[in-house]
Design goal:
Helix content: 25-40%
Number of helices: 4
Largest sheet: 8 strands, antiparallel
Strand content: 25-35%
Mean pLDDT: 85
Distance between the termini: 32 Å
């Protein structure tokens, strides 16, 4: 139940932030540059179903939201097992953000460079580096909620952030287990992108 409340709250806040950001900016959404590999954030359908099933068996897609943001476009996908029964309950969230080239900057900041900077800004000092099967360099760290692992990587101008939280028989899973799960999931997601 607590996971469902947290997920619902996160979805409402992120939708309000996107809409509010565009309203405050008062302009049209930014457009991709000619060198940007991703001209929009991919939809949730790009995430392999078998990867979700391995990370969080029985999970259902609870939220699929997205839209323009300052300097790019984003998609947020949330799968959960909350309320479905079973010993293991959890939430898997994937944020896909296409960062666009900023030609107005001096010098120009490419979408790839912007995604790399955004990834570096996400990672706390306690993060650890891992190399995914796709060759992408990812950072993984312990989340603030027990039983949570977080991971971020980028490919071209696409920033990917994954959060995995699980409880097994009312106890948060050990971080080592959460970390192993999220890295295996990111391996498959990286290959799909």
């Amino acid at each position: 139940m607590r996971a469902a409340i947290v997920v619902t709250g996160a979805v409402v806040v992120s939708a309000a932030a996107v809409g509010g950001g565009l309203w405050i900016a008062g302009g049209d959404p930014d457009q991709p540059g000619g060198g940007d590999a991703y001209t929009a954030a991919p939809p949730c359908g790009v995430v392999p179903e078998h990867a979700v099933a391995q990370a969080l068996p029985g999970a259902v897609l609870e939220s699929d939201d997205g839209g323009p943001l300052a300097g790019g476009d984003s998609t947020a996908c949330v799968w959960t097992t909350a309320g479905l029964g079973g010993d293991q309950q959890g939430v898997l969230r994937v944020d896909l953000t296409a960062r666009f080239t900023d030609a107005s900057a001096e010098p120009t900041v490419t979408g790839d460079a912007s995604a790399a900077l955004a990834q570096a800004a996400l990672v706390p000092p306690r993060g650890a580096s891992v190399v995914l099967g796709s060759g992408a360099e990812a950072e993984v760290w312990r989340g603030q909620v027990p039983g949570t692992a977080e991971l971020a990587f980028h490919t071209d101008n696409l920033l990917v952030r994954v959060s995995y939280t699980a409880v097994d028989e009312d106890d948060p899973v050990a971080f080592d287990r959460a970390e192993e799960t999220i890295v295996a999931f990111a391996d498959q997601l990286g290959e799909a992108l």
